[in-house]
Amino acid sequence: MNYANDHIRNVLIAGHGGAGKTSLAEALLFTAKSTDRLGRVEDGNTVCDYDPEEAKRRASLSLAVAPVEYDGVKINLIDTPGLFDFELGLHEGIRAAESVLITVSGRSGLTVGAQKAYKLALKHGKSRMIYISKIDAEHADFYKVFEELKAEFGPSICPVVVPIEQAGGRVFVNLIESKAYSYVNGTAREVPMPKYGHREDGLIEAMREAVAETDDALMEKFFEGEPFTQEELTEGVRVGVKTGAITPVLCGCSTALAGTDMVLRYIKKLLPSAARGAGCVAADRDGNEVEIACEAKDPLCAYVFKTVADPFVGKMSYVKVVSGTLKADSPVVNSRTGEPERMGKLVFVKGKKQTDAAEIGAGDIGAITKLPAAQTGDTLCAPGRVVSLPRPEFPRPTLSMAIKVKQKGDESKISGALQRLMEEDPTLGYAVNTETVQQVISGLGEQHLDVVCAKLKSKFGVEVSLTEPRIAYRESIRKKCKAQGRHKKQTGGHGQFGDVWIEFEPTDEGEFVFAENVFGGSVPKNYFPAVEKGLQEAVRHGVLAGYPVVGLKATLLDGSYHPVDSSEMAFKMAAKLAYKAALPEAGPVLLEPIGNLMATVPGDVLGDIMGEVTKRRGRVLGMHPAEDGQQTLEADVPVSEMHDFTTYLRQLTQGRGSFVFEFTRYEPLPSNLEPKVIEEAKKFIDMKAVSYTHLRAHETRHDLVCRLLLEKKKKKYSVTLLH
After folding, report:
1. Of 121, 142, 123, nearest in space to 133 by CA
2. Tell me: the pLDDT tens digits for 516-554?
3. Which is the most buried residue in 203, 227, 328, 374, by most CB within 10 A?
4. Helix extents (H) in 566-633
5. Bridge partners of 623?
């Protein structure tokens, strides 16, 4: 059934891991009779946690959409993960919703996940509602949590439904209606209003004051001490929610279906419809701003907020129709590519269940199957009005691990499988490092990469393990040195002769600089390129551990030649001999990669971060204030010391901290660490030393790297030592 945009509510359910988001979504679905059974996260049978990995881990790992039809209104529930390793879902869903329903555990209280969700809602201008869950849990304390909310988020916090314990059991008091309800087996029963104590009187007064702030007439009535009518309270809270002045607070026990009916009621009554909140600002082809109103009669504008690329189901793009009406035969242009998109089937999605749709109206959410070129963040438009909605900002990967394939022959499957996973997960990165001969994946944390490995096995049949990636070191020299390279070989016919004197010295002009200062024609000019080429090949492998040599200047000074036996190959070999003779005497040194760290953390842990950076051989460069009272620390830290920094920072800050780390330059490795690096380098091969003659027919360089990783164990090639 299609709904008008003023009868649609798009609600993102967010909060900390374990706060009860999926249980709330399940309870709302069951209460509205959208499902015929109440699933449980512990049993792995909820509508939103339908992926086998979610059922196995008892936690949400990706965004899920579950529409609810309630009292003539369609509510699109968007359930998001609370684990920080999977916060992609929160960033995907925030663009598709007009409101954010933040779940806070009545037992655990206000946690980092709830704070992040609240701040993200503020950043994107979304209306907010808070649901305090697990009121029936041992040690749950609604009023303590409510005071935490007031202290953190200020006077916008407005109580709407509160629990009161009395002799006959717990009742839920609706402060707007001035009615009390008890629940038996999920069924609400109105009971007499309990007598208010001092605390409850304060809650009612807090609600009246918040409502009075939304309207001058209500403010005057408030100061005169007149009571508000139920309609005035409802309208006042609704207006305050739309402007952001009020954040209503409700409570309940999702697994017992207590209070969930009032959550549905106030989602409908208090949260803005798509007609009021789905409009936005886009940019046309010239970059000019264009107001997009959520109107069915306007040209089509739809936003792709999530992509699913399953090898069994196929590709599916979740879309929010901002304006117009999306039909299967609609002409659609992808504003990113400028090319028409070939539409597949339109469906409405409830967890993993799909229902065919003739059209998706303005303000509604659905999915398109087999949309080949579309990516998450794309805008689909009518050809007559091509606009681009702002692209989303996703968290950047911070933890990298090297993949090791367990089954021989699976190397060629890895790249294609990860490309499919990256289509649906923009926070996942993948690269083949031919220098360290490793395939490296990057993600938001250990759990994130662990789930990626599980999906590679279950969906693509590739079993892998993860190891710490190797570091790409470099070598250089510290002093000037001159050496002779003389290549002389006599065979039956023409011999080989080349003789050069080359001076090597450190330089800041580049990785490798070649110059010549030859007088008198001792080395003919036509052999200069051969000398340079020989040196370029030689610097690929240093004399300490076989790493590439950088910051080296080589000047050809003198030499000799034979009019018959000299050749380009002979002078190329002579240059390499000079290189091998000179570098051990030129003070060779290992260089390690250094990165720039920008860590944003709460001020109370700044000292701990500074100490940790120093412990990791880093240098603190400075600090400056960041948003929300946090501090940003800037430092230079060796790349080799940063592998587990993601885990450390998350544990120290409880998920509040974040960082960006980017490679900047190479610096000398402390001499006491050189033996360990050199020893490690002896265990691995230099794939660059393997000639391209090893390439088989139709084999790419990437395929060669993967194949030789296996053949390395058989010692099929003689290799140069390198990390």
Report:
1. 142
2. 998 878 889 999 999 999 999 999 999 998 899 999 999
3. 374
4. 568-582, 606-615
5. 633
DSSP 358-375: SEE-TT-EEEEE--SS--
Place of tokens 């026990």: 253
Write phi, then psi, for 327 (nearest 5 degrees). Answer: -125, 160
Instruction: Specify the pLDDT at position 691.
Output: 39
* Angle subtended by helix axes 216-223 and 230-243, to nearest 10: 130
Kindly state the DSSP code that residue 37 receives in the 8-state scheme.
Answer: S
Q: Which residues contact 323 (CB under 8 A, 6 or more apart)?
A: 279, 292, 293, 294, 295, 296, 298, 299, 300, 301, 362
Chain position carrying tokens 């929300």? 628
Which amino acid makes up residue 541? H
* pLDDT at residue number 696: 53
User: Over 60: is that where the pLDDT of 713 sits?
Assistant: no
Strand, coil or helix: what is 440?
Answer: strand
As given in the structure block, the two tokens for residue 134 are 């697990």
What pLDDT is recorded for position 698?
A: 47
pLDDT digits (tens, 9 = 90+) for 299-324: 999 999 999 988 777 889 999 999 99
Query: DSSP secondary structure string, 460-474?
Result: H---EEEEPPPP--E
Split at pLDDT 50, 70, 90, the class of 709 is low
Q: How confident is the model at residue 705 (pLDDT cuts 50, 70, 90)?
A: low
When pLDDT is cut at 50, 70 and 90, the band that residue 413 belongs to is confident
- For 34, the token pair is 């959208």
Residues near 688 by Cβ (< 8 Å), separated by ≥ 6? 434, 435, 540, 722
Beta bridge partners of 326: 360
Torsion on CA atoms 672, 511, 684, 440, rounded to nearest 10: 100
CB burial readout 631-650, b (16+ within 10 A) else e: bbbebbbbbbbbeebbeebb
Tell which residue, 190, 188, 204, 194, has the closest CA to residue 260: 188
Q: Which two tokens stand for residue 474?
A: 């470099």
Q: DSSP 3-state assignment of 306?
A: strand
Which is nearest to 487 in space by CA: 476, 472, 475, 502? 502
Residue 428 has pLDDT above 60, yes or no: yes
Q: CA–CA separation, 609 vs 601, rounded Å?
A: 8
